[in-house]
């Protein structure tokens, strides 16, 4: 099989984490999450890691060229000879163009972009369904895990529930809007290049993976 170099895309809550693990297990490629490589570069005090840390310590956003540099450092390593899957990068068109240059220089071009698509309204319901018992901290979900008796905690019998600010529908919707604004140009960019494969993420986990696997098997 040719080397498999992927970009994984999808809105928050679309199930990227679950699918990423299944892809890595099956195809023996390295999962490169931007959060992980940032932490690793800063911990190992690489040139780009130190640059990133200087911005983060000041509470500033890390500029694209530093993020690109950290990705380039990671893609230069020998452990990705069989392939890689980028998750969380690129996040905008500047980074997508930089990735083209980097991967071409390293002779590790991206050969597929997997975009897990779920209707944003469904995602808002998924992500804003969590609520918590104020008395004992037991967690419930409006779609997947309601208390056995409505309004009464299964664990402690309390009746006082709350939602964290992060889980409130308006916060989740706002996060979704921000992500959609970032994702849409990338989807168009990769579609024009003939690399985009959009997967229906609103199915059982196994069915989503079956669809992804059939695409990757052909590459």
Q: Roughly what percent helix?
A: 40-55%
Q: How are the strands of the largest sheet arranged?
A: 2-3-1-4-8
What is the CATH level 1 assignment? Alpha Beta
The fraction of residues assigned to DSSP E strands is: 15-25%
Question: What's the CATH H-level superfamily name?
Answer: P-loop containing nucleotide triphosphate hydrolases
Output the structural class.
Answer: alpha/beta
Q: How many distinct domains?
A: 1
User: Taking all residues together, what is the mean pLDDT?
Assistant: 94
**Strand elements, count:** 8
Task: Please outline the major beta sheet.
Answer: 5 strands, parallel
CATH fold field value:
Rossmann fold
Shape: globular
**What is the terminal separation in angstroms?**
8 Å
Considering the chains and any ligands shown, give keywords for the structure.
single chain, 219 residues, alpha/beta, Rossmann fold, five-stranded parallel beta sheet, three-stranded antiparallel beta sheet, 8 helices, 47% helix, globular, transferase, Adenylate kinase, EC 2.7.4.3, nucleotide-binding, cytoplasm
């Amino acid at each position: 099989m040719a080397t498999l170099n992927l970009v994984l895309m999808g809105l928050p809550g679309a199930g990227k984490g679950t699918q990423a693990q299944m892809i890595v297990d099956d195809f023996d490629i390295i999962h490169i999450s931007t959060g992980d490589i940032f932490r690793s570069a800063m911990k190992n005090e690489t040139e780009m890691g130190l640059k990133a840390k200087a911005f983060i310590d000041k509470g500033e956003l890390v500029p694209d060229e530093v993020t690109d540099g950290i990705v380039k450092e990671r893609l230069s390593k020998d452990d990705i000879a069989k392939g890689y899957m980028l998750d969380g990068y690129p996040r905008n068109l500047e980074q997508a163009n930089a990735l083209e240059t980097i991967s071409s220089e390293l002779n590790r071009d991206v050969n597929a972009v997997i975009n897990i698509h779920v209707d944003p309204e469904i995602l808002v319901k998924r992500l804003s369904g969590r609520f918590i018992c104020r008395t004992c901290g037991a967690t419930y979900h409006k779609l997947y895990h309601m208390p056995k008796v409505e309004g009464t905690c299964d664990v402690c019998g309390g009746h006082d529930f709350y939602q964290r600010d992060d889980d409130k529908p308006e916060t989740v919707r706002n996060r979704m809007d921000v992500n959609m604004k970032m994702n849409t140009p990338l989807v168009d960019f990769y579609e024009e290049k003939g690399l985009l494969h959009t997967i229906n993420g609103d199915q059982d986990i196994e069915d989503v993976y079956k669809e992804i696997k059939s695409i990757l098997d052909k590459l």
